[in-house]
Design goal:
Length: 265
Amino acid sequence: MIADFGSRGFRIFVVVAAVALVAGCAEKAKPLPPGSADADKFLFERGEKSAKDKKWLEAREYYRNIVDNYPQSTYRPDAKLALGDTFLSQGGTENLLLGGNEFREFLTFYPTHPRADYAQLQLARSFTMQMLAPERDQASTRDAIKEIEIFLQRFPNSKLMPEARKMEREAKDRLSEANYKIGFYYFRVRWYPGAIDRFKDLLAADPAYSKRDAVYYHLAESLYRSGNGEKRPEALPYYERLVKEFEVSEYLAAAQKRIAELKTP
């Protein structure tokens, strides 16, 4: 764990140093026009234009100039957020790490700022954009859920709440799907005790999982097939939950057939 953190931290340091070097050179090449008034406003507007044109490096030069050289500017908080946004918009693992770092710093410097909710949500987004397929490591998914939960606790009245809830569902679905695939593997190899435990743990951890119809069905089937049939009565409630909660499901007909069978004397 410590080694992984050190490696990630070193990568961030190297990329930040490179970005700072490029920005420094660019600033020398693009000085402000002589006699410019409201220089911070000028820089911010140039940054906005560059970002709109997807000139991410150029946009970051302008935003970084404000953040580093205009500590009292009213544009500084927005420039800090915009700086993080350019990294997320450009994408790629290194950029997502750097963008997340910008939003984390914003929350440290401006914890009560009106846009702190946006910074927290973007920090969470920097992890959702790194989520891997269900078959792969889910560390980023867990980090995303953690940051979304912080948002939900700190900003319950935020206008961004619907978007946060959507991101939360996406991240939880990814994690639950990873657990489901493990349970389904156990089901396929007919190790029903392992499948039963995995499916029950999934439902306890995420009862709103979007694809829980598959969990209900394979949990019920695992109970139905387990041992010499002594667990079949335990399967019935899961078949019934599937039928009750899902009007459309590929497992619906099979579940109804099992219900009729189990209820027949």
